[in-house]
Write a structure and sequence with these properties.
Largest sheet: 5 strands, parallel
Structural class: alpha/beta
Helix content: 25-40%
Number of helices: 41
Strand content: 5-15%
Shape: flat
């Protein structure tokens, strides 16, 4: 038996009589989000005798104890909010677990927690200590007459937390805290162990719900919280919290692993992962969007339900595989598996502790880390230098440092395995500024410098935080990020100014800054906040302060280390590293899988941190005065994990947490930094291996100074390169007399320049220096149509042409979209494919016709067209849609528009780019390219293995595209008169990727995504295009080398014209006609796989098109096809019905049955002709409303049941339902009858009939269209027979902007939203052979426009309300495509465009009609190991209502911004203008 969790929960709670049913129903609404469908097991005849074989059905009683208190000063706590009005976590947990268990054992009892255990604050006299709770709950269970205390199995959950008022106490004090905490816990568990037979005890760490920092808590003195607390002062950091939290967890885990409570067969304690709360739980709003909850009390109760379900799920997971849980995501309730039907314990999980399994022997750290200084000349300059470029080591008077815990020295001198001591900041041994003892015993940069100048001041000593006196000028703060460094700088400057020993103006200072590790550890949680751009911006702010306020300073900027190597230490099994703590401290580095997109993103961010740091320093920003400089010290840039002689990660270089440096590593870092400081720029070591012997270098006699860019004779790269060109052409005159033939067109004759295409022509990312800017379209720099500046500094095709004709117009300038005025005739759209090109051509034509600067008939025009990259990038996903035939057809349609309507034009058709060559940028691991974006940028090309099927397909498609274009143009189709021609420019056929001297691709030719060209690349493209235009047709270059030294060619006296077939003496084959009239509204469909399933499917989620045997429909006059033959409004042309018509074939009329007949010629039930007798299973009636649907449903069921042509039980049926237009049109006349609630209720009744009576059925519920566009149609033409009084008065009668109009529009949206709620509610998901899917192509219908921007009435019948046969064909194709699109990714608009190739084919990998489940929104079976993939139904509603959601760092930023701007325009303006209907 299957169970709905929410309903059982309500039943259980209402049975207590504690609250009104409706109130409980509202409070526990969150439970309906859980899909709990465990097969109910038969109650065992005898309960299990062992706790290690305990099944949920064996449990008779559920209870819990715990003291959920808050630490003073920790802020308002969850429990305090509830007061006496809400339920505590203990209560909700007990009730939730009881409900879950009741599906296995309906007689389960739940013993409510003791009064006073909820909301108790530390100063409350009602607080009950945990041991007393345990005693009382045992007493209550013994007294309970409904249970047998000795023989019934009990599930007891103990919520236990670690709290302390501060975490900055000395580590020894904290250790006592932990031991005290552990003893309290032992006392409670010992009591349960001795007093309670047959018990499974969950131990749950609830610290995160009770305080912000772990702690010292006396459970025997909760009424007096001041007793036994750590009376210390000071702020704590996240690092402190994490290490303390881990230390408590580690102590508790060791207690569990000791088997102290595992000696009896009827008792066990299992430590479950910690609870993780959040501030606010998002709830489902009425319309399916996410909103906040009504009250904090309701929110908290819902949070507790989620936590309790998470606890249940972890009880189903073996020890060692449990995951922390909370309310950060909806959870799928897990069921016991057939293999392991019991609750997991340490024993039945076959769990071995780390202490038992670890056989490693780690050598203790060396305790002396001294160094010999081999330098003889240790004296200062003869006079105090005035230039930082003449600074000797002995001239340094003051030393300081900035950074994080690596500079603060956390754990540097800790003993092995003493993880808690990592909280101690051993500043005296810090690599860059520590001054403990001397160089003979402690190697630090400060101690090295003290050998040159014993009077050095500023170094740190001993231990302590940055606020202590002995921290001195070491102002590094544990846990700090780059954004925190400016505050450190301010404190450092203030300390220097206030130190009487320091003369700020005359003393030379050495300041070392090292930061970024924590940023990388957190970047995946907020890629924008921790972006490379923000990282370097914060560095810049800090360095700017130093530059402005600190004279005579040499700043070491140590490049962030290559942090990914830390993963090796975590992955190694040959050490005792605290792996959980490592994941907590640095999740974004440790957690990603090898070669995952998340790992690639980490590597990319790491490299960009380093690269942008270099760019900041090399900008020269800090070399404006002679007494200040910043030098990048890169010794850690390519550091690897130090290894032992056996080749294993050497943890001796790390503190006990295996994250921070040990003193051994600090010593090595100090040596490496010193050597870096003496190495000239351009020759600095950037791959120092920490395990190598590092011998200290000495200043040379020739170069005794700390090396700077100046004394290294190092020139920073030019930060503002010039991308201009020289044009050495002498003859720049136009034709005289003016040219009359396109074949005698000189460059100076061109007056108008334009372009069509995709992101390459739109200028995506040309001048971007970071990924966040990749949605900027730098149209003014575009190779083929940009007009920024002049040729002297910007090389583009228009700038070259302006050297011949300064009055040329049409080029784009600046940035923006194709709709901005400065884009002008650059109508390229990022993401565009060939199918979008005709719409671009129409927009271009409109602009040229309407712009007063353009004389369409007299001015010569140059139009550059380049498209196809996005088609190829998606080719492997839908080879039929992106076939060469379809590609060429779309190019032809575009060129036909230009040929027919644009006189005096030369179209330069640049062949599709060889995108396969770009793979080299993404497979070379040494190149700083965002490989994690490969799937987003061009998945069919940039991902996968070499020689994969996908690459082969794309390679063949590329060639087919090129050959097809060649055949099209060489057909002579566009050379039928003297004032128009199309010329192919083939130079992008073979692309040569640029390589640097290091043998790796040179990414300077590309934008930060390594896919779009940078300005440097665009300059080269512009030169190549210009030269190609001058070359004869049969002599054009067919390759392009980014790095070639391209010199701009000039027209010659013998060949002064732009090259065409005619002036190149090139002969075309015979001419073909250009304009082929559309004879019908059919479509083409050539899917590679059209066979049915190998066996008749039993699941609707595996239903293929060819499996459909029967088709039917309900609805109104749209489904009876009124108006299909435009002028006849009296006849129901059911044979032409979009969802049911079977007249003709797909090639002559697109209908859903005609499409399905391509897969199953024996399809039954479709309509033919116009009589009722041949209507088949089309039971729709004109004038029908939602309330008529139940009757139609009954009629359809009976027709099918009585038909001898079908097998009622075995044949798969497809039923389409569309209704609601008449309800909306009459709403204002009777708001009660046509209310939203009634509409949805009628739909529910209809679907209930199908669900109850029809086997094997897939129901298309077509969303009611946005009907307000009727007003625009009605007002567009006097020819419309439609009158506002009798067809749709409620939409057509109200005045514009009136309250009545706004109300009906709102009702229209509510019809859509509430129907969607019904479909996705889960009401129709219990049957394996039944599915209802909302098809939303009508949700945002676009009104088709003609060439005059008026509604195109060819899509509508004479009444301008119903559709014509053309409009019905569009509906059929949109419905078919919707059926194949996954839920959450369905197209939510219909563009009303004629394109015979728009029909999609089933995905070869998942050739099924899409349902919620096979789209990934439901579990496909009861395998509980896969439940994490399931998604609650509210997420489907959000996805459906919001449309296709873009979504990853910069993938989600770049694609999100770009998609929002372009998706609607590019995806809908295919071959015709449209506007919102």
């Amino acid at each position: 038996m299957k169970l709905l969790l929410g309903l059982l929960f309500l039943q259980l709670l209402s049975s207590e009589g504690n609250a009104d049913n409706l109130e409980e129903q509202e409070k526990l609404k969150a439970l309906r989000s859980f899909q709990f469908s465990c097969e109910q097991a038969m109650l065992p005849e005898t309960p299990s005798s062992s706790v290690h074989a305990l099944r949920p059905a064996d449990i008779k009683t559920v209870t819990a104890i715990g003291s959920l208190q808050r630490t003073p000063g920790s802020g308002v706590h969850h429990e305090d909010l509830l007061q006496s009005t809400g339920k505590s976590l203990l209560e909700v947990s007990v009730e939730t677990l009881a409900v879950l268990i009741s599906s296995f054992n309906p007689s389960v009892l739940h013993q409510s927690p003791l009064p006073g255990t909820k909301g108790a604050t530390p100063d409350s006299r009602q607080a009950i200590d945990l041991l007393h709770q345990a005693e009382e709950i045992v007493k209550l269970m013994k007294e309970n007459q409904m249970m047998d205390f000795q023989n019934d199995w009990k599930l007891i959950t103990v919520f236990f937390s670690a709290e302390t008022p501060c975490s900055s106490c000395a580590s020894t004090r904290l250790k006592n805290c932990i031991l005290h905490n552990l003893e309290q816990l032992k006392t409670v568990l010992d009591f349960l162990y001795t007093k309670v037979p047959k018990a499974f005890v969950n131990l749950v760490d609830s610290t995160e719900l009770t305080t912000f920092s772990p702690a010292c808590q006396d459970y025997n003195n909760v009424s007096n919280p001041s007793r036994n607390q750590c009376n210390c002062v000071g702020e704590h950091s996240i690092l402190d919290d994490n290490i303390l939290r881990w230390s408590y967890q580690d102590a508790w885990e060791k207690l569990m692993e000791s088997e102290r409570f595992n000696q009896k067969d009827d008792f066990t304690v299992v430590l479950q992962p910690s609870l993780q709360g959040r501030n606010l739980l998002l709830r489902r709003g009425r319309d399916g969007f996410i909103t906040t909850s009504k009250t904090q009390v309701e929110t908290l109760e819902e949070e507790y339900i989620f936590m309790a379900v998470g606890l249940w799920n972890n009880m189903m997971e073996p020890v060692g595989q449990k995951q922390p849980y909370g309310v950060t995501k909806m959870l799928q309730v897990q069921c016991p598996s057939q293999e392991n039907p019991y609750l997991f314990t340490y024993r039945n999980s076959n769990y071995s502790s780390a202490l038992e399994t670890s056989n490693t022997k780690e050598t203790p750290q060396e305790r002396s880390y001294g160094t010999n200084i081999p330098c003889f000349d240790r004296g200062p300059s003869d006079t105090v230098p005035v230039s930082v470029h003449n600074l000797k080591p002995a001239d340094i008077r003051v030393i300081g440092a900035l950074g994080d815990s690596l500079t603060a020295g956390n754990g540097a001198a800790s003993k092995p395995h003493d993880v808690l001591d990592v909280l101690t900041q051993y500043r005296g041994v810090s690599w860059s500024v520590g001054g403990n003892e001397n160089i003979s015993t402690v190697t630090t940069l400060a101690n090295i410098l003290r050998e040159f100048n014993p009077s050095l001041i500023g170094y740190s000593l001993g231990t302590g935080k940055e606020t202590t006196d002995n921290a001195a000028l070491n102002q590094a703060v544990a846990g700090d990020l780059a954004e925190d460094v400016p505050a450190q700088v301010r404190r450092l400057v203030d300390r220097m100014k206030n130190d009487t020993r320091i003369n700020l103006q005359t003393d030379w200072k050495l300041i070392t800054l090292f930061i970024g590790g924590n940023d990388l550890c957190k970047f995946c949680n907020n890629p924008v906040q921790y972006s490379p751009e923000n990282y370097t911006y914060n560095l810049q702010i800090a360095l700017d302060i130093l530059h402005r306020e600190v004279p005579r300073a040499f700043v070491n900027l140590v490049t962030v280390l290559s942090i990914a190597s830390l993963r090796e230490l975590h992955a190694s099994e040959n050490n005792t590293c605290p792996k959980l703590l490592m994941r907590i401290l640095c999740p974004c580095v440790i957690k990603p899988e090898d070669n995952s997109s998340e790992f690639k993103k980490l590597v990319y961010f790491n490299r960009r941190y380093q690269e942008r740091t270099r760019q900041l320093v090399e900008s020269g920003r800090y070399d404006t005065t002679d007494d200040f400089t910043v030098v990048m010290q890169p010794f850690l840039m390519n550091v690897n994990m130090p290894k032992t002689q056996e080749g294993l990660p050497d943890s001796s270089y790390f503190a006990p947490d295996c994250f921070h440096f040990s003193q051994k590593a600090h010593s090595q870092a100090a040596r490496a930094l010193w050597n870096n400081m003496l190495e000239p720029l351009g020759e600095k070591t950037d791959d120092q291996q920490i395990e190598d012997e590092i011998v200290l270098k000495c200043p040379s006699e020739a170069e005794p100074f700390l090396r700077t860019y100046k004394n290294s004779n190092y020139t920073y790269p030019n930060q503002t390169p010039n991308y201009g060109s020289q044009l050495l052409c002498e003859d720049r005159s136009p034709s005289s007399p003016p040219a009359t033939s396109v074949h005698s067109l000189k460059p100076a004759d061109v007056k108008i320049i334009a372009a069509l295409g995709d992101s390459l022509t739109a200028g995506t990312g040309i001048a971007s220096d970071n990924l966040l800017d990749l949605d900027t379209e730098y149209r003014g720099l575009s190779w083929s149509v940009g007009g920024d500046a002049s040729l002297e500094n910007v090389t583009t095709l228009p700038n070259i042409f302006r050297e011949f004709n300064v009055t040329i117009v049409g080029y784009s300038i600046g940035t923006g979209s194709e709709n901005d005025s400065n884009a002008f005739l650059n109508q390229a759209v990022p993401g565009a494919q060939a199918e979008h090109l005709p719409a671009q051509a129409r927009n271009l034509l409109r602009l040229m016709k309407t712009d007063p600067r353009i004389d369409l008939s007299a001015d010569w025009k140059l139009i550059t067209v380049n498209i196809g990259s996005n088609d190829l990038c998606n080719y492997c996903k839908d080879p039929d849609h992106y076939s060469a035939v379809n590609f060429i057809r779309r190019i032809q349609e575009t060129l036909d528009i230009l040929h027919k309507q644009v006189p005096k034009a030369l179209v330069s058709l640049v062949e599709v780019i060889d995108v396969l060559s770009l793979r080299q940028l993404f497979v070379d691991t040494q190149v700083q390219c965002p490989t994690y974006m490969a799937d987003y940028l061009c998945s069919c090309v940039l991902t996968g293995e070499e020689n994969s099927t996908n690459l082969t397909m794309v390679r063949e498609a590329t060639r087919a595209y090129q050959l097809g274009i060649q055949r099209l143009v060489e057909s002579g189709r566009y050379d039928t008169h003297e004032n128009f021609t199309v010329v192919i420019q083939p130079f992008l056929q073979n692309l040569k990727i640029p390589f640097g001297q290091d043998g790796h691709p040179d990414v300077s030719y590309f934008s930060p995504d390594c896919f779009h060209p940078s300005q440097k690349g665009h300059s080269q493209l512009a030169k190549a295009l210009w030269n190609a235009m001058l070359q004869p047709v049969d002599q054009k270059a067919d390759s392009f080398d980014f790095m070639a030294d391209i010199v701009l060619d000039c027209p010659t006296q013998n060949k002064p014209f732009l090259g065409t077939y005619k002036n190149s003496n090139y002969t075309h084959p015979p001419v073909e006609p250009t304009n082929e009239p559309i004879e019908n509204w059919g479509s083409n469909l050539s899917c590679s796989e059209q066979a049915p399933s190998s066996r008749v499917p039993t699941s609707v989620h595996e239903l293929q098109p060819a499996d459909i045997k029967v088709i039917g429909a309900l609805g109104d006059s749209l489904t009876t096809a009124v108006g299909a033959k435009t002028t006849d409004l009296q006849t129901d042309w059911r044979g032409l019905s979009w969802s049911m018509g079977g007249d003709g074939t797909l090639e002559t009329q697109a209908t859903l049955p005609n499409i399905l007949k391509k897969f199953n010629p024996n399809l039954f039930g479709f309509s033919t002709g116009s009589s009722k007798e041949t209507a088949g299973f089309n039971v729709a009636e004109r004038g029908a409303t939602a309330r008529n649907m139940s009757a139609q449903a009954h009629e359809l069921v009976e027709l099918m049941r009585s038909s001898s042509k079908i097998n009622f039980k075995e044949d798969w049926k497809l039923i389409t339902v569309l209704v609601g237009g008449n309800d909306l049109c009459q709403y204002c006349l009777d708001k009660e009858t046509y209310s939203v609630q009634k509409y949805v209720k009628h739909l529910q009744n209809t679907l209930d009939i199908f669900y109850k009576e029809l086997p094997r059925v897939f129901v298309n519920m077509v969303e009611i269209l946005e009907i307000s566009g009727l007003r625009q149609i009605a007002a567009s033409s006097s020819e419309c027979a439609l009158t506002s009084k009798n067809v749709c008065p409620c939409f057509l009668n109200p005045e514009e902007n009136s309250d009545e109009l706004q109300e009906i529009k709102r009702v229209n949206r509510d019809f859509q939203a509430e129907a969607l709620q019904l479909i996705n509610s889960g009401r129709y998901e219990e049957r394996e052979d039944f599915a209802v899917v909302m098809q939303p192509f009508f949700r945002n219908t676009l009104l088709p426009l003609d060439s005059n921007d008026k509604p195109d009435l060819s899509f509508f019948a004479a009444d301008c309300f119903h559709f014509s046969v053309r409009g019905y064909a569009e509906m059929a194709m949109a419905l078919w495509n919707n059926m194949l699109e996954p839920v959450g990714e369905k197209q939510t608009y219909n563009s009303f465009t004629h394109d015979r190739s728009k029909l999609k084919c089933p995905n070869p990998e998942k050739p099924f009609f899409s349902t919620l489940r096979n789209s990934g929104f439901r579990n496909s079976d009861l395998n509980l190991e896969k439940t994490e993939l399931s998604v609650p139904y509210w997420a489907v509603i959000v996805a459906a209502v919001a449309g296709v959601l873009a979504g990853s760092l910069l993938i989600w930023l770049v694609s999100g911004r770009r998609a929002k701007r372009h998706q609607l325009e590019t995806d809908t303006e295919k071959n015709i203008k449209t506007t919102s209907l």
